[in-house]
Design goal:
The structure holds 2 protein chains of 2 kinds. By secondary structure, chain A is an alpha/beta fold. Chain A contains 8 helices and 8 strands, in the order E-H-E-H-E-H-E-H-E-E-H-H-E-H-E-H. In chain A, strand 7, helix 7 and strand 8 form a beta-alpha-beta unit. In chain A, helix 1 packs parallel to helix 4 and helix 2 packs parallel to helix 3. The longest helix of chain A has 16 residues. Classes of the chains: A alpha/beta, B alpha+beta.
C-alpha cells in the first residue's frame, strides 16, 4: 500500500534472517555438555533401529562394568518403562523418558531428566535414544560420543538408505554378529557403505548376547573416555 | 517425523524475529542442505499444522536447496552434489567426508502490514 493514503496493493517487506534451525536445541545441548563435564561424567548417545539390541548392549555393558564404574542410563521410548526396569535389574540407575508422539530425544528432555539423577556420583551416562534410524541423528543431546547399534538382520543396504544416522555416529556397532552365518548379509558391502557415508567412523563387530567383541567395545569406550576429556573436544 | 520438531522451531524463530509488530506473514523461505535428511513435504505439512491460528497461518513455506560438498575418500577431490550422498566425478567412488550440506536455515520472511 502507498504510505500516504493506503491505496493499492499491500507492500511486501522482506526480512533477511539467516538463522539456523534447532539453535535452541544446540544451546540446551551445550548446557548439558558443560554440566556433564563439570560432573566428570562421560555421556554416550546410543542410537539405532528398534530391535537392534541397544538395551541388551547396555545390560551386558553394565554387567561387565558395574563393579568398577558407576553407570546411569536415561531411557527414551515412546511408551512403557520396560527398558529402565531392565537396566535397573542389570545394576545401574535408570530414568525413563516416555516421548509419546516424539520420535527422538532432544536436549531439553535430557536436561530435565538429569535433575532426577545424581551425576556427580556416576562415571558414565548412557542415553538410549528412541529406536529410530532417522530422527535422532539431527538432535545433539550434549553427549561426547554417539554410538549407532545396528544388526545384520536390518540388511546391508541400510548405511546408504539412512546416511544422516550413519554419518552422525562416531562408532558403529554391528551387533548380533553371531547370526552372520545364518543370514544373507554381505559384510564387505555393508562395511564399504558405512565408510562411504562416514570415512572416519570406527566399526566393531559384537554380540551383546554371546559376549563376542565386548572386550573390544569396552576398551574402545575407555579409550574414548580418555581422549574425550574436555581438553580434547568431541570424539572424532 | 522430526519435521514436527523442526516446524515448531521454525515457527518460534519467525515469531521471535517479528516481535510485537502487527504483520501478516506471506512467505517463509528456508535453505535446506541436500544431505540434511529433511523431508520437505513432511515439513510443509507439519508447518501448516503448527501455525494454525497464528499470524503465520496461510504463509507459504518455500525451500532453496543448498548443494552439499564432500571430500572423496579415494582421490581427495572435493565435489558438489544435490542429494543425500554423491559420487566423486573424478574417480567415481561413492560418498566421502561430508564438508557441508546438512544446513537447515531460516533465510527470510516476507510480511505485509495489516
Amino acid at each position: 500500500m502507498c504510505d500516504t493514503c493506503g491505496c493499492g496493493t499491500p507492500l511486501v517487506h522482506r526480512i533477511d534472517v539467516n538463522e539456523r534451525l534447532l539453535a535452541s536445541n544446540a544451546a540446551d545441548a551445550e548446557h548439558n555438555r558443560s554440566h556433564f563435564e563439570q560432573s566428570g561424567i562421560f555421556a554416550v548417545n546410543v542410537m539405532g533401529a528398534p530391535g537392534s539390541g541397544k538395551t541388551t548392549l547396555l545390560e551386558t555393558t553394565i554387567g561387565r562394568w558395574c563393579e568398577a564404574r558407576r553407570i546411569a542410563v536415561i531411557e527414551g521410548d515412546q511408551a512403557t518403562d520396560r527398558d529402565s526396569v531392565r537396566i535397573r535389574s542389570a545394576g545401574a540407575t535408570a530414568y525413563q523418558i516416555e516421548t509419546g508422539l516424539g520420535c527422538h530425544l532432544d536436549a531439553a528432555q535430557i536436561h530435565r531428566a538429569v535433575h532426577y539423577l545424581d551425576l556427580a556420583r556416576d562415571d558414565l551416562l548412557f542415553i538410549e535414544n528412541v529406536g529410530n534410524l532417522v530422527c535422532p541423528a539431527l538432535f545433539d543431546l550434549g553427549e561426547r560420543l554417539r554410538v549407532l547399534v545396528t544388526s545384520p538382520t536390518e540388511g546391508a543396504d541400510k548405511p546408504l538408505k539412512y546416511p544422516p544416522m550413519f554419518r552422525a555416529a562416531h562408532i558403529v556397532l554391528l551387533n548380533k554378529c553371531d547370526l552372520l552365518p545364518h543370514l544373507r548379509f554381505e559384510l564387505d558391502e555393508w562395511t564399504e557403505s558405512v565408510f562411504a557415508v562416514n570415512p572416519r567412523v570406527r566399526i566393531l563387530k559384537i554380540s551383546a548376547t554371546t559376549g563376542e567383541g565386548m572386550d573390544e567395545w569396552l576398551s574402545l569406550l575407555d579409550e574414548q573416555r580418555a581422549t574425550c576429556s574436555p581438553a580434547h573436544g568431541t570424539a572424532q | 517425523m522430526h519435521e514436527l520438531s523442526l516446524a515448531r522451531d521454525l515457527a518460534a524463530v519467525v515469531e521471535r524475529t517479528l516481535g510485537p509488530r502487527e504483520t501478516r506473514v506471506l512467505r517463509v523461505e528456508m535453505g535446506i542442505g541436500s544431505a540434511a535428511g529433511v523431508a520437505l513435504d513432511s515439513l510443509r505439512f507439519a508447518f501448516e499444522l503448527v501455525v494454525q491460528g497464528t499470524r503465520l497461518e496461510g504463509a507459504e513455506l518455500s525451500f532453496i536447496t543448498i548443494a552439499a560438498r564432500s571430500r572423496c575418500g579415494s582421490c581427495g577431490e572435493i565435489f558438489v552434489f544435490e542429494d543425500m550422498i554423491g559420487h566423486c566425478p573424478r574417480c567415481g567412488r561413492l560418498g566421502g567426508e561430508l564438508l557441508s550440506g546438512d544446513e537447515m536455515v531460516l533465510r527470510a520472511i516476507e510480511v505485509t502490514d495489516v
